[in-house]
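Example (one chain per record):
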Amino acid sequence: MIWEALERVKTLKFKVNGWEAVGDMEGDTATYRAVFGRIHYKDSSRDYYLKPGELKQIAKLDWAPPGLTEYLEACNGVLALGKELDTDALIHEDGRHLAHVLAEAGEARLVGILGKRASGWASKCPGGAYATHYAAMSCRPDMVDEVVKRCPKGVTDKVDKNGWAAIHYLAKAGGPPSMAKAVDLYGTGPKAKTRKDNGEIPKGSTAIEIAEHFGHRELAAAMKALK
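Predicted structure:
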């Protein structure tokens, strides 16, 4: 079933996260860093997500992160299931639409199994969260971008039952500083305030303050730098 397949993607995503190694690929020595299941290629001038074909190449090398091959196979499994199912009609047993679960899984290329006009992009789950909230928690700029493209205007700045917009969850989850750029795709900016108390975070907190509270200093600094 597709729910089990997506849970496997999410689990393996965390398995490869945090891996880092220096390798030589086509004569170019660079640092490859895993960020929630996608490998970062980073040197003095570039910082980008490798394409699936490049990831497949890396998976064959002896310094590849443990679980990368399995992760890629799990993603392919979801893509295959997506071709066989009426994806817009799929609702998880917890009441979430497939759009919410895809966004949470955190692999951007998987959202393609669900049409751009699917009802899930505009709907909220029983807890009041939208796909944008789940995408923010994935800490993946490419996932944020893909979800925002599919959500109707006005959805990106919606708040859940806790009074938090997606940007507040992004600040709590952290992730690479490049997530700050993804913030601009949301309707609310980093200075937007929470509307309710939520655990240790009081009402009226900004995304910048939340990021600082949870120790995401680089992300907070990047948010402050936004014009």
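Caption: Residues 129 and 160 are 5 Å apart (CA to CA).
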